[in-house]
Amino acid sequence: MNRVEILKTYKIYIGGAFPRTESGRYYTPVNKTGEGIGNMCLSSRKDVRNAVTAARKAFGSWSERSAFNRGQIIYRIAEMLEGRKEQFILELQKQGSTKAEAEKEVILAIDRIVYYAGWCDKYNQVLSAVNPVSSSHFNFTTCESMGIVGVLAPQTTSLIGLVSLLIPAICSGNTAVLIASEKLPLCAITFAEVLNSSDVPGGVVNILTGNTEELLPVLASHMDVNALISESLGSLEIETAKAAVDNLKRKFTYNADWSSEKSQGLYYISDCLELKTTWHPIENIGGTTSSY
Amino acid sequence: MKVPTSFTNIPISPSVDKVGVEERVARFQSRSIKNESKRQGLDLVLSMIDLTTLEGKDTPGKVKQMCYKAHHLHDSYPNLPTVAAVCVFPSMVKTAKTALLGTSVKVASVSTAFPSGQSTRAVKLADTKFAVDEGADEIDMVISRGKFLAGEYNFVFDEIAAIKEACGKARLKVILETGELCTLDSVRKASDIAIYAGADFIKTSTGKIQPAATMQVTYTMLMAIKDYYDSTGIMIGMKPAGGISTSKLALHNLVMVKEILGNNWLNNDWFRFGASSLANDVLMQIMKLETGVYQSSDYFTID
Question: Do B298 and A49 lie within an 8 Å CB cutoff?
Fold first, then answer.
């Protein structure tokens, strides 16, 4: 029987809910043959604002969770993604991947999430230090989460690029506002459905779709966003860097082949951390032995 | 100055059409406010705030800090108005009064066994007199909700009249605690009793009970003020308090006041917001309008 296929309307993901964009605008990205592949929200600056508000609200409790618990929750994302592998493979094919490429991308995404789940309760031991100082102080440096991380998902992949930047940012207790790939946005919202059905609290990850040139400056200039990570921004680079100056946002750009197993590691986590050094006075009687 | 009559002389309160109120209130919330008007509205909101701290853990230090904020809202942006008043417990009035010496910010004190109002007339009068003697410019009293709900309207009326007398020159705000009055009909009745008994202001809530200042409740109280003004020519002030923490909601309230009572009420002699976190949100909105950039609470004072 002939039937007209339903073109799915993908909504955005803010504070654990799936609202439509407040602007009421939509766009339809197309595949190589020019067919529409979905109705996507063309988000506005107010959606960015709402997403940042939700991320700030979620930050306190997410960053205060035990590292082990965050690891459990990140691992749960991988489990849920595993269960919906087929859907992602079909979606990637719809966006122009071959079946083999799509399968490889989804499996790598799952493995990468598991990889970062493992790091959750380990990065702090590796990155922290006890520092030698020549006064009567116990001097140590530990990591603290930064706050809200703005993520511009890599434009040339729909899933693996997004996972590669997003997961290391949130595994250390940050919350995130992510702008999906403009031309390949489908997996970002389906990934939001995965996040929503795993145990990630609402607001920890917020995902918007829309025009990069419209949304990025708003995110970059937002005073309540503490870091901005992306691939190289090309013509938007200078403007974005200038906008990020006012609140001294940490800004990192990465150029990596996300489909390589090497494009993961501790430094993706450490870039979105603050180091805190504490000088703790100690009694040093006689000056011969350690007294802490 | 109006002379309180006895409860038996006041007009019977009209019943409130709840569905109609909800529809009208929804329309106030769908107004489009352009940037220039919004900027003016936000300044107006700031100047109408009663900056409030009513916690068991209040210390003189906390009150002094809040008083400083009352007239230094955001020093990095000059020419902002000050808030209208600070609102504190009677024991903190002297501290606040000293901290605000030489400014135009008033000191309001809650009284009458705030927030429950469960005490004797003598205690409530002493509480009020103490606050006035310490220098309070305004008194925020609570009505006896228990008596009101038991139908002892005479008691409630006489109590308000007695407190009004104890206030002397201080302006009296009467808190109805609408979250405990259950229906809009009761809110209207309590409003009428308070107005006729001598209130200079009527105020929705203590901030300790939810729901507090919903727009439906504020609307009902504004209508009581309007009806009183229409029949006597005497203005009564309005103070929604509790739950108004965003600029948007505050602007909706201003729209409502303008459309029901008119421009005469759009100043801090006749309209106030009782709030603790509203000021920072308004400041952040103002800075957003001025800089074009969304703001962070990291750059504003901690309340």
Answer: no
Kind plus residue range of the DSSP H or E element containing B142: strand B138-142
How far away is chain A from the Cα of B193, in angstroms, using its nearest Cα? 42
Verify whether the Cβ–Cβ distance A224 to B293 is below 8 Å.
no
What is the model's pLDDT at position B6?
Answer: 80
Predicted local confidence at residue A144, as pLDDT: 96
pLDDT tens digits for range A243-276? 999 999 999 999 999 999 899 999 999 999 999 9
What number is the ipTM of this complex?
Answer: 0.85
**Residue from B94, B173, B189, B239 carrying the catalytic annotation:** B239
Q: How much of chain A, in percent, has pLDDT values that exceed 90?
A: 90
DSSP B11-70: PPPPPP-HHHHHHHHHHHTT----HHHHHHHHHHHHHTEEEE---TT--HHHHHHHHHHH
Residue B18 CB neighbours (<10 A): 13
- Which structural domains are found in chain A, ordered by start? 9-21+37-282 (3.40.605.10)
Please name the residues between 37 and 96 in chain A that touch chain B, using a CB distance below 8 Å: 48-49, 52, 56
Using a CB-CB distance cutoff of 8 angstroms, which residues of chain A are in contact with residue B295? 223-224
Identify which of A187, A182, A229 has the alpha carbon closest to the alpha carbon of residue A42.
A182
Say whether residue A220 is in contact with chain B using an 8 A CB cutoff. no
A271: enclosing H helix or E strand: none
Which residue in the list B50, B97, B127, B140 is annotated as catalytic? Answer: B140
- The arrangement of secondary structure in B35-291, i.e. its CATH architecture, is Alpha-Beta Barrel (3.20)
Domain ranges of chain B: 35-291
